[in-house]
Structures are given as C-alpha cells and as structure tokens.
Specification:
The chain has 124 residues and is α+β, with helices and mostly antiparallel strands. The chain folds into 2 domains: 70 residues, Glutaredoxin (3-Layer(aba) Sandwich); 54 residues, no CATH class. The protein contains 5 helices and 6 strands. A hairpin with a 5-residue loop joins β5 and β6.
Length: 124
C-alpha cells in the first residue's frame, strides 16, 4: 500500500481514486493507515460482504485461522464496470502502481492489457 501512496499524485492526475478494503475492523484499519502514512481510504469489510462479492475471500488464511481477503487490484469505471483486475494468492506477486497505471492508460486507448490476472469487462 505504501507504493500506491507514493504514486498517489499519478493516480489523481488520471482521475483515479485509490481505495483499499480489508476484513479488519475500522480501528485496526485506522491504526494501519496512520502507521503507513496512507491518505487514501482503507475501508473495513468485517463481514466480508464486498470481499465475497468479488470472490476474494481466503477462508482461514489469516492469523489464527481468521478469514482474510486475497490480494487484488481493480480498475472500476464510474458505472461499476470492472475494466481490469489482477487477482493473486500471494502478496509478493501483487500488481504494482506502474502496472495499474499502465493498465488504465491502455484501457483508455482500447488496447489489451498484458499484466498478470484476468481481464473482465462485466458489471458486478
């Protein structure tokens, strides 16, 4: 998340809003935002409703067997259509800010986006 924070101005210049979601309670997310110096929202989905909707739940994958979210990045347009997504099982294989920005630029240009993950162009 720090890498996205450090490139936040590039997202802002393109009109993109960075938002993170976790299963942690709001107090934990608040502390995490402060510790990392994040200025973008870190939302709490304690019941994993949104996480389940996007098929990101990793049951019992967290500390003590807690449910967590799989790492993922999405580009969602204002109508709610997913224009690009990157899904992974590993936090070390996540998309980096330059990949997300490139995917956005290529999506605007109508080009296919050759990055890890699967491209989806459907509403959820």
């Amino acid at each position: 998340m720090r890498s996205f924070q450090s490139r936040l101005s590039e997202f802002d210049q393109r009109g993109l809003r960075v938002v993170a979601i976790s299963v942690d309670p709001p107090s934990t997310n608040h502390d995490h935002r402060q510790k990392l110096g994040l200025t973008f929202p870190l939302l709490s989905d304690e019941k994993a409703e949104t996480i389940r909707r996007y098929d990101l739940l990793h049951p019992k994958g967290g500390p003590g067997g807690a449910d967590i979210s799989r790492p993922a990045e999405f580009l969602i347009d204002p109508s709610g259509t997913i224009r690009w997504e990157n899904l992974t099982e590993s936090v070390t294989v996540r998309a980096r800010p330059d990949q997300v920005l490139k995917a956005f630029d290529q999506t605007l240009a109508g080009a296919s986006v050759p990055v890890p993950g699967r491209e989806v162009v459907t509403s959820r």
